[in-house]
Every structure is written in C-alpha cells, then in structure tokens.
Design goal:
Layout: E1 3-8, H1 14-24, E2 31-37, E3 40-46, E4 55-59, E5 62-68, H2 94-105, E6 117-123, E7 128-133, E8 142-146, E9 149-153, H3 167-176, E10 190-191, E11 196-201, E12 204-209, H4 223-241, E13 247-251, H5 257-265, E14 271-277, H6 282-294, E15 297-302, H7 307-319, H8 334-337, E16 342-345, H9 350-353, H10 370-382, H11 388-394, H12 397-403, H13 406-415, H14 420-445, E17 450-452, H15 458-465, H16 469-472, H17 476-485, H18 487-490, H19 505-525, H20 541-546, H21 550-557, H22 560-563, H23 569-580, H24 587-607
Parallel strand pairs: 13-14, 13-16, 14-15, 16-17
Antiparallel strand pairs: 1-3, 1-9, 2-3, 4-5, 5-6, 6-7, 7-11, 8-9, 8-10, 11-12
Length: 619
C-alpha cells in the first residue's frame, strides 16, 4: 500500500527500516525505496501503477519522503492567482517540487499540505525531523516514541512493538465503530492529528496545529452566487485530479457527490463508472440511470449477502481495525479496478461538506450547555454500537475503567473547540467521522488503484466552509448547482429521498408524498407490523447477519480464546440471539464486536504463532 516510513534517532540504519517498509506493503506490485543518512533512515512505498504522487529524494542536508492520494499536493499558482493544475511533469517529480519550496522557505514549507498527503522531512545538519499532513488529516501517519527514537509509518502495525491493546480505543470501537482522536488499537501507536506540523529534536516531540476550521460564515451572498463559487472550486479540483496516464474510474450512486463529479468529469475524461450494492438497491438502480444519461461505460458490481464473512478479515487487516467490518463492501470493487492502471475518483465527503449534516443540530441545542448538547448529538448520530450500560455488562470489570467514557470524552474534547452548536457539530463531523471514513475508503480502494478525492482539495474546503449557512442548509447551493449546470443528471432520483432534484412541481410533490407513505405511512397504519423493504442501503446489514453471515458471526461471538479474557461472551451471545430472533436490530453492535474479534485474531497470529494466544491488554 502506498505510504512512507522513517526511523529517527538511535542506530538508524538501512536494514532497520526494512521491517517498517514490509509492514506497509500489502500487494505484490508495490515497490519500496529508502535513503539512510546520519541519524535517520526514510523510506517510501509506491503502488507501482504509474501516475502516483509522492516519492523520496535527497537534496543537500534534507531527505524528504512524501505520499498522498489527492490532487495538487503542492499548491502552485500562476500570475493571476489561479491554479494551472498541479504543475508536475513526469520529468519533474512532485517530491522535487516540494524540495524546491523547502530550499527557499525552510522546513515550514511542508506545513498545510493540499489534497490528501503526508510527509516526513529530515535535516541531517540539525538532526531534526519534521512531520506534516493535510488539513483534514485524511492521509494517515502514525508515530511511536521509543526512548530516544521516533518511529513513523503510514500503517500502524509497521511500528507496533507488541500486541498490547489500547483499552480506551477498544471502548471507542465498541461504542462508535472505530477509534477516535489520535488513538489506535495498538497501545503505543498514535495517529498524527489533522493539520499537524510536528518536530522531533533531541528526543523531544512537539506537535503544532497549523490550521483550524473557520467559524460558520456570516456572509450574505445568495444561493446562486454560492452555487457558482462551489462549481468553480469543484471543477478546478476535479481537473487537477484527472490524470491522462490512468484510466479514470468513478463509483457512482444515486447520491449528490458522485453525480456532481460525473457531470464535471464526463466531458474531460474517458470515464468508466461503477455501482455496487445488492441488486435492488437504489444506488445500483439510480447509478445505472445516471451512467446511461451521461453515456459512460458502466458496470454494476453485485454485493453478495455473505460479503462480511468473505471480505471482512481482509478489510480488518487493511484498516487495522480502524473501521467497522460493514465497510468491507468497498473491496467488492477491487476486481473491477484490477488490470489497467486505474485512477479512482472518490466523491465521498462532498455532500457532507456542503451541508448535509447541518440538520443534525436540533432546535434548541444552541441554548444548551455544550456538554449536554454534545451528549445529545453523540447519542443521536455517533453511538452506533454499545450504550454505556451495555458496555458495563459486556466488558469484564478489570478493564472497564479504561474503556468507560473514552468515546464520549474524546468526542466532547473535539466538540467544545468549535464555535456555536453548528460549528461544534461540524468540527466533530470532519475530525472524527469524516476523517475515519475517508481514511478507510482510501485504504480499501488504495490497495488496487490510485485514489484522489477532489472534495478534499484545499480550494474546495475553503470555498465550502466560507459559504453562508443559509446557502448550505438542506444543501441548497449544492442542489442549485446540479439543477442549473447538469439538469439531465438532476432528473434522476436521489437515493436518500427517491425523488429527482428537477421536475414539474406537481410531479415532485406527488413523488414526495408517495415516498412518505412508503417509509412512514404503511408502518403507522399497521402499527409497525408491516414495514417497507429498505432500498436505500448498499447492504442489508441486519438481515445478512441473520442469514448468509450467521455462522461467521456465531464463530466470532463465541471466540473465548481471543476475547474471553476481555469480554463476557454470554452478554454477546444473548445479543446475537436477540438479533437472530428479530427482537432487536443489533448489526452496529455486532459489527463492532466482529471487528475487534478479527483484529485480535490477526494480532495473535502475528505475535504468537505456536500456539495462538490472545494479545496482551494494556493496564
């Protein structure tokens, strides 16, 4: 998997870096390179498909290792302030462009990287190392301080010295579905925070944040003007993302993000589109309709009902337990990406950035105490796993203290740094939820393709966050942009609502009423006895756990060898039976449990080959 690794301090020799580079590599086509100097050795792994950004190079006393999956990692402007693209030619690698800036401006030139990127810079003259990542922290960079040494890698397992678990991260996984903040499931390994510029010198490690999300804008521009600004920013970012060396592939659904990228990219590249999900999902149906309207070469990739059992172990290995097992559905696209070198254009994040989440703030929360408002938001939108009471019953008492409250404490510490209820909600959404989602998307898709996300481009982020709230509420500017610029695509129904964005007022009103009757009216009339089949999800998570993946989950729920010391498996078994009987929908809790079980199995397999033992627990 593309990434970087570094060993700073101590006996930093070339051979010492090999285990770290091996810990990053997950595919047969990947290639590694390294440079060793006095006091440090840095390495870089590339996918081997061509068209990739990043690399490793030395100039004077500086050694730079850079990796990224986003466009325009080094912002370049022409005379009028516009961007002509990333400005990088095959003869002039991007790492060299960044070294030019470092030579002119010094190490701070690496701070505030654009797109999805991270790097490590070492100055042999001063024996100082510098780390930096993008504003939203989408390029993962892990670190571990080991006495007088600093170990760095883009995969946590590469620098984990033992199988000791971080219990707080385990508690977060069980409650939210993934670790939060800087935590990983490895006790000694931390994730570099977003927008970081970190310095290591003489055994001291300091992290400074170089960018903060702005407070919600109070600008008074209209929706049309906001839509025009958004279109300009996304168009520029998409053009920067496309690469003539690679086959452009765009996963499309019936959502707004991929629809906008489809409208922009279809006239600028020979585009291949993919949809995936169960056969009657709206994403497959509406994605196919969008492809026909746009005239792209399209393929629908079926999602089998046993995908969690088949692909789950691989997904947990690739994400290192940092994402729930349900996200394994993304691996279904990898066979379609194999073959000719592919550039996957990710639309994830766009709709959220443009205001889809603003409705998460309930009326009255502005007047609430921050901690009470945070708790309400956490329970309503973020806690998809075990409740506090359920966690107390599930976790054995010696380990409960470190898990209990870990998820909400990290959530609230992030929440309170924002301004106002909306600003706070936006902050936790970007730093906690979206960061993890984009990271595991880049990780799972990045095993077979170069991944770029135009919505992570600095210009798009600044434009979106600079729009007035009224233009972002209910995604007004986003929807106006699609209706005005791509009316043919706007006439295809939207997955979330089942209703097109554009059509006759009477027709749209009738569709909305029909959808309301389908989702709510039938259930009310029958007092909940009859519920409409849900076509909106990629997968029927709860139903498939009861059917195709039942044996797989039963095996994990009963895994005493790897979980019995940590959890009371009788509680897990009772929950599993209740789910199978249809008394509860526990797919979120069971998914988090299964993720932990698979991670701990893999950890034990790597660290105790004969016989297998459960990984140790940090006390």
């Amino acid at each position: 998997m593309p990434g970087i690794a570094a060993l700073i301090g101590g006996r930093a020799e070339r051979l010492a870096l090999d285990p770290l580079l091996a810990g990053i590599q997950v595919g047969p086509t990947e290639r590694a390179a390294a440079i060793a100097v006095n006091g440090a050795v840095l390495g870089h792994v590339r996918l081997g498909l061509g068209g990739e950004e990043g690399g490793i190079a030395r100039r004077g006393s500086y050694v730079l290792a850079l990796w990224g999956a986003g466009p325009g990692l080094v912002p370049k402007t022409n005379g009028d302030g516009g961007s002509p693209g990333n400005g990088v030619t095959p003869e002039r690698p991007l790492v060299e462009e960044l070294l030019d800036r470092i030579a002119a401006q010094g190490p701070p030139a690496i701070a505030d990287l654009d797109g999805i990127a991270a790097c490590c810079l070492y100055d042999e003259r001063t024996e100082t190392a510098y780390l930096a990542n993008d504003r939203l922290g989408f390029a993962r960079l892990y670190y571990r301080v080991d006495g007088g040494r600093l170990l760095i890698a883009s995969r946590a397992q590469a620098i984990a010295d033992s199988a000791v678990l971080d219990l707080a991260a385990v508690g977060q996984l069980l409650q939210v579905g993934y670790p939060l903040g800087d935590r990983t499931l490895y006790a000694a390994v931390k994730l570099l925070p977003p927008a970081s510029f970190a310095t290591w010198h003489a055994g001291q490690f300091l992290i400074r944040r170089v960018w903060e999300p702005p407070a919600p804008s109070t600008a008074t521009i209209g929706v049309d003007e906001a839509a025009a600004a958004l279109e300009q920013a996304v168009t520029r970012a998409t053009e920067r993302a496309l690469d003539p060396q690679l086959r452009a592939v765009l996963p499309i659904s019936g959502g707004l993000d991929s629809r906008l990228l489809l409208g922009i990219a279809r006239s600028r590249s020979e585009l291949v589109t993919l949809s995936f999900g169960h056969g009657h999902s709206r994403d497959v149906t509406f994605g196919g309709q969008l492809a026909r309207v746009a005239g792209t070469s399209h393929r629908s990739v079926p999602l089998p009902s046993d995908y969690m059992a088949v692909l789950g172990p691989r997904a947990v290995y690739l994400t290192e337990g940092m994402a729930p097992i349900e996200s394994a559905h993304m691996l279904c696209l990898n066979p379609a990406l194999a073959g000719s070198p592919s550039l996957l254009i990710s639309g994830f994040l766009g709709g959220v950035a443009s205001g889809a989440h603003l409705g998460w703030v309930e009326p009255g929360e502005e007047a609430m105490e921050p901690q009470a408002a945070a708790r309400a938001l956490f329970e309503r939108r973020y806690r998809e796993g075990f409740s506090d009471d359920e966690l107390k019953r599930l976790v054995r008492k010696p380990y409960l203290r470190e898990m209990e409250g870990a998820a909400f404490d990290t959530f609230f510490n992030t929440y309170r740094r924002g301004e106002g209820a909306i600003g706070r909600a936006e902050r936790v959404n970007f730093e906690l939820r979206q960061r993890r989602f984009v990271v595991y998307q880049v990780t799972l898709f990045g095993a077979t393709a170069v991944v770029r996300a135009p919505f992570a481009d600095r210009g798009v982020v600044e434009t979106v966050l600079g729009l007035p709230l009224e233009a972002r509420r209910q995604q007004r500017a986003y929807r106006r942009l699609l209706i005005q610029s791509f009316p043919d695509l706007a006439r295809v129904p939207h997955t979330a609502t089942g209703v097109p964005l554009l059509g006759s007022p009477l027709g749209l009103a009738l569709r909305r009423r029909l959808e309301w009757c389908r989702w709510y009216g039938v259930a009310r009339l029958t007092h909940g006895l009859v519920r409409t089949h849900d076509y909106r999800q990629y997968a029927h998570y709860g139903e498939w756990i009861r059917t195709a993946a039942q044996n797989f989950f039963a095996d994990l729920v009963g895994d005493h060898d790897h979980l019995g010391d940590l959890l009371d498996l009788r509680v897990a078994a009772d929950l599993f039976r209740a789910h199978l009987d249809g008394r509860v929908d526990a797919h979120g809790r069971l998914s988090a449990f299964a993720t932990l079980a698979l991670f701990r199995r893999q950890l034990a397999r790597r660290n105790a080959p004969e016989p297998e033992r459960p990984a140790a627990i940090a006390r």
